[in-house]
Structure formats: structure tokens, C-alpha cells
Amino acid sequence: MTLTIEITSDFICPWCLVVDARLKQAIAQLNPPVELQRLWYPFELNPDLPEAGLDRKTYRSNKFGSWEYSQALDAQTVQATTKDGIEFRYDLMQVTPNTLKAHRLTWLAGQTGKATEMAERILRAYFTEGQDITSVEILAQLAAEVGIAGQVRPFLTSTAGVQVVKELEQQAVSRKIRGVPHVKIGKKTIVGAQSVDVFLNALQTAVSQQQAA
């Protein structure tokens, strides 16, 4: 028996990294453990950003009215996730990225069963290392770290994968997904960065329902 978890997320969303951490904690508490398949679906919160992204300080100052308020929002994220084992490094971030390339790379990784490893590595690279995830070179390096090599640079410098990612994003819209993180576990849909217990309960319920069926 394999339980499928559908995750719709964007690499610019800190709560998507938080959900990944909390979901993994919940999975670790499943007893007995079950075989899981995590499927990653793209969502772009800022699809109109330039391909190379924008200077983060300028972008967020304009979006939120001031850099000080932007920093206060970042601090709230850090404060709310102190028990999740995540070291947010907003101080290292220079770019607010366009995430289309990152989504394309995750889709490519999924063709060889490595979507989860790729998505998690990209999220960490941006939020805990401050790396520019619009960069083909950086994405290729991250791909190599999770065991994907060779075809990444030519893939990302072409238009390969653009149409399929855009189609997947439209499917999210048709499912009335308006924001991320959005997680579907069995028949249960979880929106936002809920607690570990919420994810564990959803997992246990889905396992019970699947066993009963």
C-alpha cells in the first residue's frame, strides 16, 4: 500500500519550507510506517517577476510599504517556527526570485523520482543559504547534489518544461487553489502551515481509510 501526498507550493513561500519540515515530523511518527509518495505541484505567487528576479530590499519595500515592515514580517516567520529546526537566513537573501526555473527543475527531477529531494534542496538553498534560485548555475549545482546531472543546464536554458509547468499551474487554479502551501493527504486538504499534529492526524486517517478500502 502506497499513500500519496499531493503538495502544491512555491519556492518563494517560507511556509512551504515549514510545512515540509512539519510533514516530515508527522511522517516519522506514523506507527507502523507506511510507504509514501509525495507529488509536488507548482504554484507561482509572483509569476510576473522578471526572469532574473528583483532586488529583494527594493521589491519588498515597495510591496509592504517599508523595508522595516518587511523585516518585521520576516522576524515573525522566524519566531513562529522556532521549534521546526529551520534556520531562516533572510539576511543573506539579495534577490526575490522568479521561481519558474525552480519549478521546471523540480518537474524534471520528478521524471526520475527525485522531486522531493529537489524541492527540499531548493527551499533550503533559498531560505537557509540565501542562494539565488533564478541562476541556472546554482540550480544545476543543487541538481547535482541530489544526483541529477548532465541535462540540467541545457534543459534550463531552453524552453523545455515551461508548457507542462504552466499547465500544472492552471490545474491548480481549476482546483480553486489560491495560495500555498496546499497539501492533500487522502481525502483531507490542509491549507497553510498547520501543526505537526494536524498532519499526523490526516496521515493516520488516510492510512485507515486506505486499509478499509
TrEMBL record:
Top-level division of the source organism's lineage: Bacteria
Stored InterPro entries: DSBA-like_thioredoxin_dom (IPR001853), Thioredoxin-like_sf (IPR036249)
**Domain DSBA-like thioredoxin positions:** 4-204
Q: By its UniProt entry, which Pfam families does this protein fall under?
A: DSBA (PF01323)
Q: Which PANTHER family match?
A: GLUTATHIONE S-TRANSFERASE KAPPA (PTHR13887), THIOREDOXIN SUPERFAMILY PROTEIN (PTHR13887:SF41)
Protein name (database record): DsbA family oxidoreductase
The organism encoding this protein is Stenomitos frigidus AS-A4
